[in-house]
Amino acid sequence: MKILLLEDNERLSDLIIEALDQSRYQVDAFSDGKKALEAIDNGYDCFILDINVPGIDGLTLLKEIRFLDSQTPAIIISANIDLETIKEAYCDGCDEYLKKPFYVDELVFKVDKLCKPTHTKLHFSETVFFDTHAQLLYENNEEVKLAKKEILLLNLMAKHLDKIITFEMIECYVWEGELTSLENVRALVKRLRKKLPSETLLSQGGMGYKLRYM
């Protein structure tokens, strides 16, 4: 899973990256809000944003993120304890507000809580399941080989169970911000369907797809 970190304190940024790396997260770190803005549509699972940073501040960046994406979790980390600022952050769409100084392990716990699928094993039939932590697909307890984009698509759908996964969400997450076509998305779904039980990936009236599980 991939995280965008906006933090201009180099020492704190390094500590957060190290802790998240140990929990098997990939972190793209930025110290400038303008540079972070250029990367927000690169398929992140979580945003961790400091408020007072060079370029664009964290709250302005959060508004830009929510304009494009209303679902991906966002955590604000800040030394600012002004009640109005905290209220503004939640109104702008943050999921957690962590006041500095904090224990880095507490941040990792919040990331785990917000980002990891609630199901460790997602069963599609009596013999086929997806291990959401290892990100591996099994049939009769034998691994089914998946391409990177197939894994990303299953992971995206596992994070948003019972919701329609739109073509735009797939493009952003699976193609990690690179432009693609509707034909490419449909071709990916077609390939993945061949590795899953029938009627697992359900088309939703031209809007996207939904995952059927046990």
UniProtKB/TrEMBL annotation:
DNA-binding recorded as keyword: yes
DNA-binding feature ranges: 119-213
InterPro entries xref list: CheY-like_superfamily, OmpR/PhoB-type_DNA-bd, Sig_transdc_resp-reg_C-effctor, Sig_transdc_resp-reg_receiver, WalR-like, WH-like_DNA-bd_sf
Residues covered by the OmpR/PhoB-type domain: 119-213
A Pfam cross-reference name: Response_reg
Keywords attached to this entry: DNA-binding, Phosphoprotein, Transcription, Transcription regulation, Two-component regulatory system
Name listed for the protein in its UniProt record: Response regulator transcription factor
Species assigned in the record: Sulfurospirillum tamanense
